[in-house]
């Protein structure tokens, strides 16, 4: 009795390889945007701590801009921050979108929201 072999065909390997390649491409292209988001999250926490120490809103925006230059934050600036004081603590929020080119005219649009609320 003959048993039929099970496995993936060469065309199936091409499709799976192309799919995995596309997923990796998106992942690699998204890394700079994610690194910038994590840098922004870290910077606004440090700046909010400065605000809790008594710094003015103008000083907080300048501090964000200085720290942003060091960490290569180019998508937003200190003017884009929403700074409020809630229950004696400075809360900084920012919402922005980042367009990540993938291939030719195909892009990925990522919406980010960073906040210091609940720290």
UniProtKB/TrEMBL annotation:
InterPro entries listed in its UniProt record: DUF4845
TM region positions: 7-28
Source superkingdom: Bacteria
Pfam families, sorted: DUF4845
Record keywords: Membrane, Transmembrane, Transmembrane helix
Name this protein carries in UniProt: DUF4845 domain-containing protein
Classification of source organism: Bacteria, Pseudomonadati, Pseudomonadota, Betaproteobacteria, Rhodocyclales
